[in-house]
Protein 1
Amino acid sequence: MSETRERILAAIEADPGIHFRGLARSLDLAPGQVQYHVRELLGADAVVAEDHRGRTHYYLPTYAPWERRAIAVLRRETARDVVATLLERDERRPADVADSVGVARSTLEWHLDTLVEADLVEKRRDDGGRVTLVLTRPAETGELLARVAPSLAGRLVDRFERLFDALVEDA
Amino acid sequence: MSPVRRLVPLHAARDLVVADPLLLLVLAVAGLGASAVLGLALAVFVRRRSQSYLLVTLAVATLLARTVVASLSLNGTLSPGTHHLAEHGLDVAMVALVVAAVYSARRVERGGGVRE
């Protein structure tokens, strides 16, 4: 295996769910180069690709499909905060979660949609129709949370969203 | 002012302004900053796909448009009169877009409520 390909493989191992542009940026490689080597790695089943909201993320094949989806979602700062809050208390009302994370309800709802879709969080309704949020796999989720970190650009996008939602909610 | 200066054609006289390094620096910083904020706004708009975020993104785009207008008038493409009208017109557009974004966010929220 070429040295470049090994570097790409090592980057994917160290940062599961890294996306195409992230690979090119962190390894300082031309997009064409990354494209070529990633295609070869995919062909050799050394790497798995998954599309998540318009972006292709790369993983080692050791990650199960649920883990791959979860990692893509847990790279978002706000989603991480929501999951961390749920890990501490296990079961919570959406309003309490929005309060302790410090986000507007509209921000929380958007991230909850993604978390529910990825099967990380479940919305449980009691007889009165009241909703509580429950983590579907708390132990594994906590482990994955520690393994991935959001990028600087990702953090800024999340904070822009928080800021604007909070501003108009108070208006 | 020397008599020779008067013989310089108007567009060339404007070219002299380009040499002001401080103004160029300010324009460059404004352009880069506005592009970065526009990138953030676009990313959130792509994520949320709401009318509010579309309006906010357009409001931020007017900031970048101001830098473009300033650059165009520096190289003589826009006359000073057009430059002023365009810049203050962009101010009006920005205020209107921010107000519309806040208004539409409120309306969507009342209409849809919070999904539970």
Note: The radius of gyration of chain A is 18 Å.
Protein 2
Amino acid sequence: MTEPVVEATDLKKRHGDFEAVRGISFRIEAGSCFGILGPNGAGKTSTLRMVQAVSAPSAGRLRVLGLDPVSDGATVRSRIGVVPQDDNLDPDLDVRENLYVYARYFRMSRAEAERRAKTLLEFVSLTEKSNRRIRELSGGMKRRLVIARALVNEPELVVLDEPTTGLDPQARHHVWQKLRELKERGVTTAITTHYMDEAERLCDVVVIMDGGRIIATGAPAAVIREHAGEEVVELEVSEEDEKKILDGLSLEGALTERTGDTRRFFLSRRSGLADRLIERARAARAPCSLRNASLEDVFLRLTGRDLSE
Amino acid sequence: MIRAASFARNACRVTLRNMLVWRRLALPSSIGYVGEPLLYLVALGFGLGQVVPRLGGMTYAEFIAPGLVVSTVMYTATFECTFGSYTRMETQGTYDAILATPISIGELVAGEILFGGIKAAFSGVIVLGVARAFGLVPSWWALGIAPVALLAGLLFSAMALVTSSFSKSYDVFNYYFTLIIAPMYLFGGVFFPLDRMPVWIQRAALLVPLTHVVTLSRSLVRGTVSAGLVGNAAVLVGFLCPAYFLAEYGLRRRLER
């Protein structure tokens, strides 16, 4: 078995009095796409910053590419690429210079840096914008340029913190396509996202974090089955009406959840409960729907609290 | 040795990033440096100078010209590493982007200070050229102002970067300019000779970096060079080292969250 690209054991990060990461363990296997999901403040970014070797763990063991990111920080950083949450492209430089200057930070010669900038501009289809200033780019173009910048050192691991937040659907698909191309090349990726469909699409393994801890882990399909069953029935009813509809129906310990006026039932196909629920809801003229369980259901179930919070 | 070479090379990469940006604006910003010292030189040197007696054999314009050269260095370095560095750090995220690469915080700090020093020295040399055009620079020793301006530029950049690294907003720079920079400008020996002041003021002035820079500058411009100037330069180095480490400490605390 090959060594994992990242291995964390009981990792903790404390910022003053606040413990952002409270003892998490995970492995990122070579060539895989690893997703970290969780609400804001769950500790995702703190975790990534430790993996990037820009923030030292407060406790626990962390190995990145077989190295200690504290004592070998510069070497670790020279072998990984980073797509940060906020675009921190250099507004004082044009598009090509952003890549050129960045390549120089990785000790490339001038000629090599120029070559690299040219290749990467082609990779993210920004060759025509070479001499534009950053403020002239659309949000999607900026993201593509940040991704290109993260690849300037031909990294073995690319860390992406919410790479598609705020992008329109076309731009998101474009970013996904680039990530798939990276994967085909065998590059390992670690990604945080708020979009569950994105994680389902891209990730081989996901962890769901909440309050600095990992509360679920596994392949997306397995996580969904475990925590949200296979099918979801949603009823749009008040609690009083719900009692009438469910009167006498045995739910046999099916997982349910209520947010506002929506009641969800997470069911296995075998149980046949979905049909019975829908029948009763129709008879009571209550709006209801049936769909496949998704990662979003898992997310809302595990991290979901009242909307008032 | 290899570590030192690698440190220097990485620091230079940061400096070169700033040089690339500066290249676009070098001409307009150079004119900017000359503007203010030129106003002071004309208004005070040639205007006020008409009613000021000769000081140690110098007209008033000759007296203040060397000080205006190095106070330009001080202001250029200070602006660069307060407003300039703070913008790169807080607003643009440039530091975060750089620190995601193999470049370390120490190398980043050194690179920023080096750039501030070079830019400031450049501005000082331009003002020196203007003073020369007015016939206020009699000695060829004045060529020695270039390295002095670089050393002073490094020091004032480092001090400014310390301020930036501990600042919570741009507003803090007002205090720095009002409480540190302006008093140095006014009481550092640029506009009047300190040797006519009470002894305690003279002693206090020795703790002010600009005083030593002005002494160096005036001696080189006048050609009155002595071994004592090495001491003035040593004081500047003595200020520079702790300022560098303090800036590194401040940025580490701030950025390594």
Note: The two ends of chain B are 31 Å apart (CA to CA).
